[in-house]
Design brief:
- The protein is of the alpha/beta class.
- It has 2 domains: about 90 residues, Aminopeptidase (3-Layer(aba) Sandwich), CATH 3.40.630.30; about 210 residues, HUPs (Rossmann fold, 3-Layer(aba) Sandwich), CATH 3.40.50.
- It contains 11 helices and 14 strands.
Amino acid sequence: MDTSLKLKEIFLNYQPEKQLLKNFLNSCDLELDEDVEYAVGLYDDKDEIVGCGAFSKNVLKCFAVKEELRGLNALNTIATHLINKQYERKVYHLFVYTKPKNIKFFQNLGFNVVECVEYVVLLENVKNGINDYLASLENPEKISKDIGAIVMNCNPFTLGHEYIIEYASNNCDLLHIFLVEEDKSIFPFEIRYELVKEGVSKFNNIILHRSGNYIISSTTFPTYFIKDKYKRANVYAELDLNIFAKHIAPALNITKRFVGHEPYCAVTNQYNNLMKKILPIHNIDVVEIERKEIKGKAISASSVRDSIKKYGISEELKELVPITTYNFLKSKKAKKIIENIKN
C-alpha cells in the first residue's frame, strides 16, 4: 500500500467528520449504517478519505476504497485494523455481511461462510461457530414427532404473544421459542427473556432459547450496500430464513414454523410472505395464526407501549398483557423503561 496513505479514526460524534464519511460512502454508491460504533478512514496526502471501514458490536461493515486503490492492499489494511481493534475490546467472534463477490477477500482474512444467498453472504471468523451454537441449544434426547418453532422479540411480552404460543403449543409435541437477543428494543433483552420465561412456565412442552448471532434481527441487518428498501427487506429475510432452514431446523428436527398474522408492519408482512415460499422447500410447514384482538384491534407490543405512553400503568393494560408482565411494569425495575417510553 502507498506509504503516503494514513489510517485514522473517524470521530462519529463530530458531525463534520461523520458527514465526510457519509459523503465518501455515497460516492461509492453505499450508505452509512446508523448503528456504527467505530469507524476508520484511509486518508491521502491531501487529507481526503480514500477508504473506510467500521463496526457495530461484533459486525464489521461499511467497507469502501477508491477504485484506483483496489487490489493495492488498502482494504486489507482497513479490515486488519478493525479486527485488531475488536480484539483490543475483547470481542473475538466477528461477523461480516458482504456481497458474494467479496467472499475470497474475507476468507483470506480467516473468515468462513455461514450462509450465502444471491445478494449477500454472512461470514464469521470462527471455524465452527454455528455448529457450536447448535450444539449449545437444549434438545431433548427423546425425538418428538411434531416439533415447532417460533421466533419472537416480545417488547414486551403481551397477551397476543401468549395467544400465539398457546396455539402453537397445542398444535405440536414440542415447541422451541427463539427470543431475539439483540438489545435494540426499549425493553432490554434480559428483561424480555425473564418476562417470556415466566409467561410460558405454565406450558409443559416449550423450550425457550436465546437467539444468539444466527437468528438475524431486521434492526441489526447491515443495509449499507443495498439502497432499495424493498430489496433490503427481501435480502435480509432470505438470508435469515435460509440459516434457519438449513442449519437450525435440521439440528432440532423442526418441521413447523408458527407466525402471527401481521396487519400493521409492512416489513414483517413481507418477511412472512417470503417465509411461506422458502421454508416449505425445506419441508418446514408455515402456520400463520390470526392475532388475538381487543376491541377490534390486534394486540401488539407497540399497542402496549402506546398505552403506557398515553395513560401510564393503567388498569387497561390488564387487557393487553399477562399478569406477570403487568406486575413487572408496576415494579421499581420498570421505572426507567416507563420513563423512556413516555419520553
